[in-house]
Amino acid sequence: MVLFTSGSESLPKAVPLSHKNLIANMRGGIDHMNFHRSDTLLGFLPPFHSFGLTATALMPILSGIRVVHHADPTDARMLARVIAAYKPTLMFATPTFLQYIVSSSEPGELDSLRLVLVGAEKCPTALYERTMAILPELDLLEGYGITECSPVVSGNRPGNNKPGTIGLSINCVETVVVHPETHKPLPQGETGLLLIRGASVFNGYYKHDKPQPFLDFDGHRWYNSGDLVSKDEDGFIQFRGRMKRFLKIGGEMVSLPALEAPLAERFPADEEGPKVAVEGIEQDGGRCIVLFTTQEITVREANDCLKAAGFQGIMRLDEVRKVQEIPVLGTGKTNYRQLRAWIEEANEVTSDS
């Protein structure tokens, strides 16, 4: 089977996944979770992405649990009504789609849910707290996956959950954290590059004329995720960000997701989509970091919000651009590649003039 990466940060790449890859990942995922024979899953994630394909299409077949399908993941009001009518107990979602559903639901409509696993993007603390306030008995778990790994790599488990982390590695993979430049292993708690190996990891992109994303380490070939993480004393993984979502400014690393987080808390996404997104580029003589937003806010107000969150110095915005809507992909992820293209186009026009 050939799936494509989401294309949120660069052009989509073709990822061939073998029968062995998919079966290993689904077995690892099923072993990791606590499914009951009486469970019913709500399936609405798009099957053209790995999370939707494996979690809501293939895995239910392998595990034998019932599924209620709904075709439109953006129809949050209907999804809330489907939950109220069919009373599913399980749901896999992205934080964006969960935000839509929570925002659109009426009191009592979501009460049948006992376990929700979110992945594909970081779960905001505000969303976690809001969901748990509505459903205090819910197991709201965060996990991590990547198309090239079929896709699940790690996840929190019922009864063994550390909110704010992406959980423990599932049993079909090994993970290690190394220095991003030297590729030497890092001690517990230090942030570095996540490497992955195991039966669910693919063998390379299809018809790809650039270097394949593998590193030799400790006598084995490992997949280079391009993600920055740390591990705590119990092996729980903390997601720190994408390497591509960092800018190097004056020798310092600026995290674009970190700048976006407090603004997203001030202007949370709803059923109409995200309200804010931060993207930036490095350029000759400096950088250009832009807040794209559907809201009324000035650069000064936005930077004051960042200061209140503890950011200072180079951790600031250079510009705010008001837009009608934040571009998103079919998975609900923000389309940062489109935002970056807008910045580059505007800078080209400025330099030409």
From TrEMBL:
PROSITE patterns: AMP_BINDING
Transmembrane intervals: none
AMP-dependent synthetase/ligase domain boundaries: 2-206
PANTHER family: LONG-CHAIN-FATTY-ACID--COA LIGASE, SURFACTIN SYNTHASE SUBUNIT 1
Protein name: Bifunctional protein Aas
Native organism: Bremerella alba
